[in-house]
Amino acid sequence: PYYVDMNQNLFLQASLHSSDQNLTVFVDTCVASPSSSDFRTLVYELTKSGCASDPSYALFPSPRGDVARFGFSAFSFANRFPSVFLRCELLLCRYHDFSSRCYQGCVRRVRRNADS
């Protein structure tokens, strides 16, 4: 466990350990839950499809493509739960493949009218 105060800035880093130097990592979706085994009943989205859902969520420059850095402000689930657990989905893409999902960044889905 990592103990923090409310609204303290948290900085996280995900590193890819691979002999393939032509891969890059991208933070696609991160959700928080008060339970380490249930990420469906009560969740809070930090980012979805590469788009920030929480106003404090931010991506930070990384020294290499195989490292993703991000952060957000610490929060709790209405003071009823003592812990917050994170689950993040990361994407791996070919380095410098600008048509890959990793290089598209935030992708918002466009909703269509039911009549069309």
From TrEMBL:
Chain's gene name: Dmbt1_4
Residue ranges the record marks as coiled coil: none
InterPro entries found in the cross-reference section: ZP-C, ZP-C_dom, ZP_dom
Keywords, alphabetical: Disulfide bond, Signal
Gene3D superfamilies: Zona pellucida, ZP-C domain
Protein name per its UniProtKB record: DMBT1 protein
Occurrences of domain ZP (ranges): 1-109
Pfam families linked to this entry: Zona_pellucida
Source superkingdom: Eukaryota
PROSITE patterns listed in its UniProt record: ZP_2
